[in-house]
Amino acid sequence: QLAAITVWLPPGGWVDLFTGARYEGGRRLVLHRSIDHIPVLVRRGAAVPMLADPREHVEVNPETLVLRLVPGTGTSVLYEDDGSAAPALADRTTIRASQTLRPDGSILVRVEATGPAASAARTLVLDLAGVASIGGLSVDGSPRADRGDVIRVDGTLAPALRVPLGRAHLAAGVEIELTEVAEQA
Fold first, then answer.
1. Which residue, of 135, 137, 170, 183, is most buried by count of CB atoms within 10 Å of its CB?
2. Cα–Cα distance for residue pair 185/182, rounded to 1 Å
3. DSSP state of 8
4. Under a CB-based contact definition with an 8 Å cutoff, are residues 176 and 150 in contact?
5. Is pLDDT above 80 for 85?
6. What pLDDT score does 68 carry?
7. Whether 95 contacts 80, CB under 8 Å
């Protein structure tokens, strides 16, 4: 009851968003999935924007920005607009999420925004795909000792470690350092 699909993966590391399976690129690969589980592969270092509540209206920019991070080194760009059929470029807010995976296994994340909605404070949440635990967390250089709100999330997507960061002004940029990052086996 499985279907097979042959895919070409460009060079680099890739992760299946639904299963958490990891693949090295630069090759052809045959993936087997049931009809209700399509492969969605994301490059390591990517940030995928998610809705905090799947019932939210998609025509309104969310108050809570959830970024599902696939640990690695890379930059992702998200564009938000006013929801009109033909938004002008001047009405577009650009959110850039950059990750740097350091040799010691720590990850430095920077999230910043430019544009008309950039100055509004938003709630920021990171979902760390495939991460089992973190040892330390700091935001803009300030360590966060109490990490009781860091939880494991399971659901339709592969398990992740959810790290709520609270309200942030993305126009100024937010820098998050995650240390002792342990990926799931």
1. 170
2. 9
3. E
4. no
5. no
6. 95
7. yes
